[in-house]
Hints:
Elements: H1 3-13, H2 22-31, E1 35-39, E2 42-47, E3 50-56, E4 58-59, E5 62-63, H3 65-77
Amino acid sequence: MTRRDKSLDSLLRGNADANIAFSDLVAILKMLGFQERIRGSHHIFSREGVEEILNLQPRNGKAKPYQAKQVRAVITGYGLVAANNHPESES
């Protein structure tokens, strides 16, 4: 399992929102097809077919917990990860 896979697993589980590296969150969004635009410290992500625009800023190299929750809500709400990759579907 790669670091990105472990980060995605942690994000989807929701048990470590305060400990997700900002660079890992960016990598996850790019892997899922989001386009990144940077304005100052703001990293703005959008994707065709997703109405929400994600505006993220790092805090000491980590993602802010509320932003990790927003990203998780978009990923799960739009079904951007196959069911067999979602940790809650594993037995």
